[in-house]
């Protein structure tokens, strides 16, 4: 071919070319691999977020339902009334007796065997650090000291304004932490990284101190202790999780009850108070506003400064508070026992005042005398006539109860005789937030920023709004502020700027969804108020995992959660699948699968991307959907599939809840069909002007129907309240509950509606 | 016959459109049908394609605005991407081809590459890795005891992981 040299050159050249091409190929392949990993990571993130937010909505819906039930069902007997008051009463007390109760902690004996920290007040820095040390050693603070600490905390909080004002003149540096992680290691970790609070180093903890972790109690103790030791340098803002309703679902209530078996209830009650006294926001140098969620186009800082923030006990519900309060007040009064204690429903602010008007009733109750324990479904009744009838019959009942109780309630007679037209006037003595005040607070605690301009309702969370850069700008200008710091949303890097760097989201809980899911961050501000971000990922394990391994772990977790959700919608999925299977062959295309799943779940997830993880690839792109659903079920029923519970504190009232179940079970079959449930709900809503669509009702019913057989049996009903302990599941759960006296009086034949 | 073929084609195209839209939306953070141009590569690759950096560069030029804004609009991206999928361009690399590529680099046929060799090839040849890419690959590929990559095992592991 040529001389040796040129051959050598030629082959050298060929070699170089081959090497080049080989390297390029490997790189090309690797880059694709990385891209796919990244896509998986993003999808995983979407899964977690959409499930978390959907969960928040569910909770709101279910809570709404039971609130309405409470509002509008009138018990026909003393037993039922008692049950209802007990169900929704946590034996809360009015202001004065509340304080007395708190100081009753002194009567709690601490055994000599107790080796944990013993607190004395006023707290000293040593006490606070001793607490940290004790918790690090996994000790538990005795209930007496917990209550004592909470009592002192409340005393401190009550003096604080709604919007705390902090200045960098006093402390050179202010550190703001977002959502905490409920592991005791968290604050320890922060203090190690950043230093203990001191006059030179202020801290602001921006809400969400509890839930989703196992050490929420300890976190609170540490935060409150430091706040008492350094009252000028340690600030807490309320978050949406500083709310007993939210705590019921996300684990805090359960944690307290588990750790403090005797005094748990008292601790929770006291905490309710403490939470609603937490300040709503912190303002640094009148320039930087720190609050938990966000703002809305109606946010009015002057109004917020003035409201009585403790009136907002829970941001979860407010609409029918008025009606409920009055009703429950009446019932509470009627049921007063011989002891001095008077149960007041938990959702009422601490107050002994009577409502100014009789119960707001609806027409369907007129039939209650005929159908003892059931709510009639259907029938066109004249609203006014029935209202009148019902009102009078209720008054009779109340009168009877009063006589039974042997007590005279002053003023109640007059109240009862007032006309219905005054039903809506607000009682002067009753401390209730107005609709506007409530809305202002909800906006602050629940809103999220969005990229688009404007302000719209935050439907995903079920509360607050989405606010755009124009809303931010408007607010900053109006109050001459420089920027906002908020938390509320998990960010992969622990922080995120938006709205032209005018809004900073700071999220301090790393590994929030799962080990490796995200980093945490906190922000430091000096006198110049320039934000300086510190990031971290607090877990030794993640640092040793490769990106691939990290993503796999998180992904597995997300997919597991997603499969649970799919299972929970099995019947919906089946009907959607059938729509695509007109010939009833039992097969659908994978493309149809994706469309069907989205119609059923409404999670807005990229189903086609996720498909390979959820569906075994089948030949010729068709899926046997029935067996797919069956496999889902098999997987779920093998482990505890109930994720979160509602109204968990009711777990002690199983028998009472059986009663309410049977109230709905109008044909006494031991089952409530989805239809009965829906009908009942529809009836309620049509009379109450409740703005909930058919779809929502169906969703609600389905979310309770766990074994998806179209019926809600008592176990499912109770399971919805996490009442059935795991051991009971193997026991006598299938037994139909025995009839109570109340039920037997004058029952109609089943199906009479 | 042509009518049936057209119908079949329509169905396929419709399916592609849905897939592309899904992938696009994952990165459309502001929900305004645009994505950052730096994410286009990830999107294209997650749709099953395996372009080189050079090919990617050309693609971006095709879908960019006349005056590049740093964002790519969905309306421009969709037709281009649909075409790519229809033509089955930038097919992924089969396992055996990948193995052969490693073997080319492993001239002594030892069955492995040392860490330094891998670094040299990946950062000096072909379309060189950035430092970040190199570190990430090393963390998973290199067996710390031998300080080398046994590429056959490595490939097997990666392929399983993909599925």
Automatic annotation (TrEMBL), chain B:
Keywords: Repeat. This is EF-hand calcium binding domain 2. GO terms for cellular component: sperm principal piece. The keyword Transferase does not apply. It comes from the Eukaryota. PROSITE patterns: EF_HAND_2 (PS50222). Gene3D superfamilies: EF-hand (1.10.238.10). The gene is EFCAB2. GO terms for molecular function: calcium ion binding. The keyword Repeat applies. It holds the Pfam family EF-hand_7. SUPFAM superfamilies: EF-hand (SSF47473). Residues 15-50, 93-128 form the EF-hand domain.
């Amino acid at each position: 071919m040529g001389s040796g040299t040129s051959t050598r050159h030629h082959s050298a050249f060929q070699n170089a070319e081959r090497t080049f091409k080989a390297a390029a190929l490997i790189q090309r392949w690797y880059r694709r691999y990385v891209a796919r990993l990244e896509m998986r990571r993003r999808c995983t993130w979407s899964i977690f977020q959409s499930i978390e937010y959907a969960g928040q909505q569910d909770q709101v819906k279910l809570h709404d339902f039971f609130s309405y039930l409470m509002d509008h069902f009138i018990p026909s007997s003393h037993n039922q009334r008692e049950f209802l008051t007990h169900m929704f009463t946590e034996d809360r007390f009015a202001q004065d007796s509340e304080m007395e109760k708190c100081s009753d902690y002194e009567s709690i004996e601490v055994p000599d065997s107790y080796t944990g920290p013993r607190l004395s007040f006023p707290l000293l820095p040593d006490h606070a650090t001793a607490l940290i040390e004790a918790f690090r050693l996994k000790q538990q603070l005795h209930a007496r000291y917990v209550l004592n600490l909470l009592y002192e905390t409340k005393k401190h909080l009550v003096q604080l304004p709604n919007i705390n004002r902090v200045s960098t003149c006093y402390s050179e540096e202010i550190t703001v932490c977002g959502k905490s992680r409920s592991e005791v290691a968290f604050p320890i970790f922060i203090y190690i990284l950043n230093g203990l609070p001191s006059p030179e180093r202020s801290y602001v903890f921006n809400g969400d101190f509890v839930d989703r972790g196992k050490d929420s109690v300890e976190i609170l103790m540490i935060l409150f202790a430091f706040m008492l030791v350094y009252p000028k340098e340690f600030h807490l803002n309320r978050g949406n999780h500083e709310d007993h309703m939210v705590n019921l679902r996300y684990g805090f209530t359960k944690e307290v009850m588990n750790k403090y078996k005797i005094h748990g209830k008292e601790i929770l009650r006291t905490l309710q108070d403490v939470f609603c006294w937490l300040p709503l926001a912190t303002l640094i140098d009148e320039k930087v506003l720190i609050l938990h969620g966000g703002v809305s186009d109606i946010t009015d800082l002057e109004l917020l400064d003035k409201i009585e923030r403790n009136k907002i006990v829970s941001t979860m519900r407010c609409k029918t508070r008025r009606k409920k309060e009055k009703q429950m007040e009446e019932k509470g009064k009627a049921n007063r026992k011989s002891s001095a204690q008077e149960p007041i429903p938990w959702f009422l602010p601490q107050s002994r005042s009577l409502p100014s008007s009789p119960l707001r009733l609806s027409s369907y109750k007129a039939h209650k005398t005929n159908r003892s324990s059931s709510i009639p479904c259907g029938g066109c009744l004249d609203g006014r006539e029935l209202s009148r009838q019902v009102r009078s019959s209720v008054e009779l009942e109340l009168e009877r109860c009063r006589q039974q109780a042997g007590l005279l309630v002053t003023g109640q007679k007059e109240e009862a005789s007032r006309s219905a037209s005054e039903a809506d006037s607000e009682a002067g003595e009753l401390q209730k937030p107005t609709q506007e005040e409530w809305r202002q607070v909800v906006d602050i605690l629940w809103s999220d920023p969005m990229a688009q301009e404007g302000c719209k309702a935050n439907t995903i969370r079920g509360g607050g709004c989405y606010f755009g850069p124009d809303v931010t700008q408007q607010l900053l200008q109006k109050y001459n502020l420089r920027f906002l710091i908020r938390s509320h949303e998990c960010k992969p890097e622990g922080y995120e700027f938006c709205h032209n760097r005018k809004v900073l989201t700071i999220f301090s809980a790393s590994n929030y969804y799962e080990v490796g899911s995200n980093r945490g961050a906190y922000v430091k501000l000096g006198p110049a108020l320039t934000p300086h971000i510190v990031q971290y990922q607090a877990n030794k394990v993640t640092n040793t995992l490769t990106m691939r391994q990290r993503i796999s772990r998180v992904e597995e977790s997300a997919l597991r959660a997603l499969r649970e959700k799919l299972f929970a919608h099995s019947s919906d999925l089946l009907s959607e699948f059938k729509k695509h299977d007109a010939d009833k062959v039992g097969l659908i295309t994978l493309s149809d699968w994706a469309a069907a799943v989205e119609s059923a779940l409404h999670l807005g997830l990229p189903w086609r991307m996720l498909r390979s993880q959820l569906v075994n690839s089948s030949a010729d792109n068709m899926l046997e959907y029935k067996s797919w659903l069956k496999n889902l079920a098999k997987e779920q029923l093998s482990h505890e599939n109930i994720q979160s519970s509602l109204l968990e504190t009711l777990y002690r009232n199983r028998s009472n809840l059986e009663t309410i179940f049977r109230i709905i079970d109008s044909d006494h079959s031991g089952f409530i069909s989805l239809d009965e449930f829906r009908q009942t709900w529809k009836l309620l809503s049509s009379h109450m002007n409740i703005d909930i669509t058919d779809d929502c009702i169906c969703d609600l019913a389905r979310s309770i129907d766990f074994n998806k057989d179209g019926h809600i049996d008592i176990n499912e009903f109770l399971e919805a309240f996490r009442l059935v302990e795991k051991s009971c599941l193997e026991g006598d759960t299938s037994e139909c509950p025995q009839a109570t006296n109340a039920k037997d009086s004058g029952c109609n034949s089943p199906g009479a509606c | 016959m042509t009518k049936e073929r057209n119908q079949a084609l329509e169905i396929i195209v419709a399916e592609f459109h849905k897939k592309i839209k899904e992938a696009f939306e994952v990165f459309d953070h502001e929900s305004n049908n645009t994505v950052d141009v730096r994410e286009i590569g990830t999107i294209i690759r997650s749709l099953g394609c395996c372009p080189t950096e050079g090919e990617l560069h050309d693609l971006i030029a095709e879908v960019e605005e006349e005056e590049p804004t740093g964002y790519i609009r969905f309306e421009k991206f969709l037709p281009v991407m649909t075409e790519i999928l229809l033509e089955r361009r930038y097919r992924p690399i089969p396992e055996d081809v990948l193995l052969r590529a490693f073997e080319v680099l492993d001239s002594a046929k030892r069955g492995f590459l040392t860490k330094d060799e891998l670094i040299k090839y990946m950062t000096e040849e072909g379309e060189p890795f950035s430092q970040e890419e190199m570190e990430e690959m090393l963390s998973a590929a290199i067996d710390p005891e031998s300080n080398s990559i046994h590429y056959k095992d490595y490939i097997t592991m990666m392929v399983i992981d993909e599925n």
